[in-house]
Amino acid sequence: MRTVLICLTILFWTSCYYDSEEELYGSSNCNTNEVTFSSDILKIIDNNCYSCHDSANNFGGVTLEGFEKLKSYVDSGVLLGVVKQESGFSPMPKNAPPLLDCEIEKIEAWINDGAKNN
């Protein structure tokens, strides 16, 4: 009985752990005004997607490296669907935590502004 109690206590304490402040408190200062491909979106894609979806890796036949290749996934709605982990889309990044809410908001703002190569 004591062993079960100890295991439950450990499980309880470890289940309340958060890796990021945003997950715990939410993001209240995400600036989505004037989001640009070169200064915002490219950094998000580079940090979260290129390890599997650059020209060298091309996992799942998906290459996001280069504006034109990325734009095809934007135009089809796939990019936003996978990063927002919507029903009917394979959630990305695979086997990793989802993008931060602010990163998703920036991608969505950029897309809604025309997904320009700026």
Structure write-up:
The protein has helices at residues 2-14, 21-25, 37-48, 50-53, 67-75, 78-83, 101-112. With 118 residues, the protein is mainly alpha-helical. It has one domain (27-112). α3 packs across α7. The chain starts with a helix and ends in a 6-residue tail after the last helix.
* Secondary-structure element pattern, one letter each: HHHHHHH
Number of domains: 1
Specify the biggest β-sheet.
none
Termini separation: 63 Å
Structural class: mainly alpha
Summarize the structure.
The protein has helices at 2-14, 21-25, 37-48, 50-53, 67-75, 78-83, 101-112. By secondary structure, it is mostly helical. The protein has one domain (27-112).
SSE order and pairing:
Layout: H1 2-14, H2 21-25, H3 37-48, H4 50-53, H5 67-75, H6 78-83, H7 101-112
Helix pairs in contact: 3-7
Question: What keyword list fits this structure?
Answer:
single chain; 118 residues; mainly alpha
